[in-house]
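Justification of computing resources. Each target in the renewal requires a structure prediction run like the one illustrated here; the chain below, 343 residues long, is used simply to show the kind of job we budget for.
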Amino acid sequence: MKSYALWNNKGGVGKSFLCFVAASQYAANFPDSDVYVIDLCPQANVSETLLGGYSPTDPPIRKLTAMEPRATIAGYLEARLNSPFQMVGSIEAYVTRPKDFNSKIPDNLYLVSGDSLLELLSEAIRQTSQLTIPFNAWRQVIEWVKDLCEALSARSGNRDAVTFIDCNPSFAIFTQQALVAADDLIVPFTADDSSRRAIENVVALLYGAGEADIAQYARINFSKRATEEGVSTPKLHTFVSNRVTTYGEKASRAFQAVANAIGDTLDKIYKKHRSLFASPKPPLESFVEVPDYHSACIVSAVTGTPVHALKAGPHVVNGERIQVNQAPLDRYKSALSDFVNRL
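Resulting structure tokens:
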């Protein structure tokens, strides 16, 4: 099984929506594969969208959290807390088929739903990882989500499978568990300097690399311990310049200038730490630009309609008429398809 984590150390970059887009389109492109989404963000935005979009009165997640055990990632982690050093007997209770709630989602896509309980479980998970017995308690706990990915792969048997893991922006222990479970890392960003700094933090927190004033602290934490205990970390795979402001069909000069600064930062990291990257090509070869098309995003997210299946024309969302025009929708679909085709 191939697994991708979507993470940036900054919120609001469109990470959860890209996870929804990638998983849905990948599942549609490869109907003979199983596609899994593990939602490790307490806001559970990707779960909400997959399950049918915004529903203020009776959200499907409420049904999943009311089950016994909870049919969510928090339910799985609760089970692991009860028996920290032994895998659960079956994962079926934690796996949902979004198609049962949202007819627009492909049959071959499955979800381990997000859950706000994650934040409350975080400290208990962290304390469990600090136990002195067994000697490798930290490694066993940090690999709980990796264990889940392996169980999902076994669930698919001979079918090809891919997993997309949506991460919380913070570097909480459940984010660390998500990243350890991934083979490759997708980093969405927007063209602003806070995104550039957040990407520096991604590299420092995950790998202990970067400028001296950052790396000197990063090396004594997660990255150092992961190296010492033989815990794998993902490779940097794709950088998605998201919500690009365009002029005509090209990125605006102001937007491009900031994106170039981010590219320069990554190029410096690449020259010093080539082994962190999935591709032998320079980082700019791994860049994808996705233009901003706010109307399409709203319709897609609120109604749970994958972008590849979205139609141009008028849409009524919460009583408001939203027009989706064909030409910008085609450009938007093309950019997102380019992103998915790299996976």
